[in-house]
Amino acid sequence: MKKLIAGNWKMNGNLAANDALVRAVVWGIREAACTVAVCVPAPYLAQVQMLRAGSQLELGAQDLSQHEQGAYTGEVSAAMLKEFGVRYAIVGHSERRQYHGETDAVVAEKAKVALAAGITPIVCVGETLAEREAGRTEEVVKRQMAAVIHTNGHCISEIVVAYEPVWAIGTGRTATPEQAQQMHALLRAQLKAATEHADRVRILYGGSMNAGNAASLLAQSDIDGGLIGGASLKAPDFLQIIAAAA
Ligand code: PGA
Fold it and tell me: 161, 126 in Cβ contact below 8 A?
């Protein structure tokens, strides 16, 4: 299975910076042996769709609505994303769970809506520092994953999972390869109980992954790629992570 390296730009970028970044990434991944995607803010989908034309760079969104259409001011539907060539959509990122009140049930619905539209959801799960310190890591991550499995049934083998310990996101503090592998193995086992195709579900690690630590994380048997925030905004760093995935 090819690894997937997905950049999560979050609420960063502008037309000029995106242009330079995407051109450098497109050039840098000409012979990449892994799948590469960038999840960009919705207003830049059209720009990046044009910039990536003809390359193997895949386009992703950072969220989508759980509703199909209608009176949901500010929301973006799966069908709209699809019109801009979106292949992946992050759902349930901890920043959405934390600042926008997304529950396990909403996240599960979003994954379902994405799959129905032919978009691969990158479903984020992960514990907070308080939860880890209270010894609740496994319980929390299992609960988050169980909601998505329950709502998506046999389609679950079509999703991508991202294990992102909240305490590692944007903090410069990464899970050790062993800590990450332990959680990835747990998620794999949970998926195996739900589908015979669990081995083809990519489970990404996210949380301060960078050019220096990517290789040791990606060498773990159940780490199938990375969801990269800060380091995806600088082409040389992002490209080094991509090289480490090959
Ligand atoms: P980070 O973000 O790489 O900046 O820690 C990862 C993420 O939030 O997806």
Answer: no
91 neighbors 124 (Cβ within 8 angstroms): yes
pLDDT band at residue 37 using 50, 70 and 90 as cut-offs: very high
Mean pLDDT, residues 195-207: 97
Give yes or no: 164 in active site.
Answer: yes
Nearest ligand 1 atom to alpha carbon 232: 3
pTM of the model: 0.98
Cα–Cα distance between 93 and 2 in angstroms, integer? Answer: 23
Question: What structural domains does the chain harbor?
Answer: 4-245 (3.20.20.70)
Ligand 1 atom closest to Cα of residue 206: 6
- 137-152 and 177-192 helices cross at what angle (nearest 10)? 40
pLDDT at residue 111, rounded to an integer: 98
CA of 86 to the centre of ligand 1 (A): 20
Q: Which of 102, 109, 127, 164 is catalytic?
A: 164
Judge if the beta carbon of residue 217 lies within 6 A of ligand 1. Answer: no
Does residue 230 line the site of ligand 1, with CB under 6 A? yes
Determine whether 93 is an active site residue. Answer: yes
d(CA 227, CA 246): 15
Q: How far is Cα 47 from Cα 160, in angstroms, rounded to an integer?
A: 25
Pocket of ligand 1 contains residue 206 by CB under 6 Å: yes
In whole angstroms, give the CA distance from residue 130 to residue 212.
27
